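Hi Prof. W.,

I finally got the Probable dual-specificity RNA methyltransferase RlmN prediction working! I wasn't sure whether to trim anything, so I left the full sequence exactly as given:
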Amino acid sequence: MTEIKSLTIEELKNALADMGEKPFRAGQIFKWLHQGVESFEEMSNLSKDLRARLAERFVLTVPQVVRRQVSQVDGTVKYLWRLRDGDCVESVLMHYEHGVSVCVSTQVGCRMGCRFCASGLNGLKRHLSAGEILDEILFMQKDSGEAVSNIVLMGTGEPLDNYDNVLRFLHLVSCPEGVNIGQRHISLSTSGIADKIERLAGEKLQITLSVSLHAPDDETRSSIMPVNEAYPVERLMRACRYYFDTTGRRISYEYMMARDMTDRIWQAEKLAKLLRGRPAHVNLIPLNEVAESPLRPSRPEVVRRFQQALENRGVTATVRRRLGPDIDAACGQLRRRELGRTAADGAE
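And this is what came out:
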């Protein structure tokens, strides 16, 4: 059966026409879906017969909360959702002065294998559908009672490895008849799949592209990000130049600060040289420790020196504020803990 929440209004109209229904019903159903209804029976302005036929023809996805951690420090909320096939994904709800931001996952697991990230330790299980990604937004809003104003696709998974479903999600979530979150309030983070970055440029979206660079040289980057073997730094930067020239949208570069690995001054100098002459912003990210990784976070004074070195060379750089320090807010940690608990229960 078709997953109804992944359909656009036009696709809904066509499906309803096949069922002998009038086009205006598509707008009604679309609105209900984006309010996070959990059954077709909740669609009270539809006839009982139509609700029954919808249930026979379509799947309505409803994720279940497995874990919900709330930070006592800053109110950040970490969710672990169980999907209809039993797989689990994570989302995070964060409070800022400008509103409520959410970080969502795009895959169950990840195949990128970044050494500092817990998301890929068990590899890729499957892609999320557009509707399943949308569910993360809808059900965080429903659970928290707060309207989401900003989205970052920076949770579990590589968004550009799930290109078609992520693109469909971007159109769904920004649709005026639905959640209607403007694309300028959406950031997509990628580990650097260069050809997909160039393809994305052609979509002419108004989103912010965030590139997880994390090292300015091939030797270091390849040692922590296997994707660099396929798309070395020079190839990645060429794709980024193309993206900016095509869209006019400034790129944000994510840079993880790992002690004695990515935080050396010569790397700040090389990074500044890489970005010279292009509108860019560098987001320095204090490393979240992962038990299975040997990497450790840079000392605060080293982060400050690195930031100053960039700014002295004309590069705008900020240090990301760490949210939810008392919960498993880093990507992949909560799901991995749940997998470990489930495995332990099964062994008993």
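The mean pLDDT is 93. Does that look reasonable to you?

Thanks,
D.
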